[in-house]
Design goal:
Elements: H1 2-16, H2 48-56, H3 60-71, E1 79-81, E2 84-86, H4 95-111, H5 124-140, H6 143-158, E3 164-166, E4 172-174, H7 179-187, H8 190-216, E5 220-223, E6 230-232, H9 237-265, H10 272-300, H11 312-322
Antiparallel strand pairs: 1-2, 3-4, 5-6
Helix pairs in contact: 3-5, 6-8, 8-9, 8-10, 9-10, 10-11
Length: 327
């Protein structure tokens, strides 16, 4: 206790007397957080493709193919900066204009064969491909648009005529005679919705943390010494404690989400109950963490966090409105 009191007294004294802090200040640049903009260097200290394989988990070729299709069209607001290509929605448009642009984008993707075998393809490989394309589409579509598309697709393919049917004469037909088993069979396809919601929450967390951390590695505020260089935000321990634990969580949740997708694609009647329990737990955990991550990232970006082009604020509004209602 005496040490804490003396330390605080020293801090106040230095502040009042305008003394420079001692050389052992905790606010120091960290080598592990050194950063240069990607457009200035194409060299990485790790295998970038292997990192993608760890984080995305599957179908890297399909993801790259879809992104190449997207950047070829002006409908996706392609922008080139320092030799790199970016796409994003046009947030200067009205909602009606955005809806019209969304329909034109979907028509373009249909023409390019993105949704080929979307409803007819069967098997684990096809389902993993669809999940991968969902995640890529989420980069360039406003989240609510993607959400509506996912819901309509899930309802169409998984619920209609999946367990029972009505004959032309009006007779109700079902191969499952037990009422309870039939009801469980009707609800089982909703597991795919939980899987999509959980994995989408993790993906949004990845995007928001990438935005906030990159901002913290370029934005400077205040200097340690008079007339000295200002300190990067991420060199402040408080900023590190704010973002880096969330980054570690998202890594762990990304691996868990990939594992959940693999469990779902390899599902059997015996494993359905376990998948139902795990997907329900992941959906709640991942969405709660995503809301916290989005709020921290928006605040960590300061005034930039409320800009539409920053996307974090829009993610908060869209996610709270659509996903929390389902959780």
């Amino acid at each position: 206790m005496d040490h804490q009191v003396s330390r605080r007294t020293e801090i106040f004294t230095n502040h009042l007397l305008f003394r420079a802090p001692p050389p052992s200040s905790v606010v120091q640049p960290h080598r592990c957080l050194s950063y240069s903009r990607p457009e200035l260097s194409n060299e990485f200290a790790f295998d970038l493709r292997e990192m993608r394989r760890l984080m995305d988990g599957h179908n890297l070729e399909d993801r790259d193919w879809l992104f190449s299709v997207i950047v070829q069209s002006a409908l996706f607001n392609r922008r080139e900066r320092a030799g790199r290509i970016f796409v994003c929605p046009d947030y200067n448009q009205s909602m009606e204009q955005q809806r019209e642009a969304t329909m034109r984008r979907i028509e373009y993707l249909v023409e390019r064969g993105v949704f080929r075998r979307w409803l007819t393809g069967e098997g684990p490989a096809e389902e993993l491909r669809k999940l991968a394309l969902h995640e890529v589409i989420g980069i360039v579509f406003i989240n609510s648009e993607k959400f509506r598309f996912v819901v309509l697709y899930t309802l169409f393919i998984n619920l209609l005529n999946s367990v029972a049917d009505v004959s032309p004469t009006g007779e109700y037909l079902s191969a499952i005679k037990n009422v309870d088993q039939r009801f469980a069979a009707f609800l089982a396809p909703l597991t795919s919705g939980r899987v999509i919601i959980a994995t989408t929450a993790v993906y949004i967390s990845k995007i928001s943390l990438a935005i906030a951390i990159r901002y913290a590695l370029t934005r400077r505020a205040f200097s340690i010494t008079p007339n000295g260089p200002e300190v990067l935000l991420l060199d402040y321990p408080s900023h590190q404690r704010r973002l880096l634990p969330l980054l570690a969580k998202v890594y762990a949740m990304s691996f868990s989400a990939n594992g959940l997708k693999m469990m779902y694609e390899k599902r059997t009647p015996k494993s359905n109950k376990a998948i139902h329990i795990i997907s329900s737990a992941y959906k709640a955990t991942f969405t709660w963490n995503n809301i916290r991550t989005l709020l921290e990232c928006r605040e960590a970006c300061g005034g930039q966090g409320v800009k539409s082009e920053n996307r974090v604020g829009l993610f908060i509004g869209e996610f709270e409105m659509h996903f929390e209602a389902l959780c």
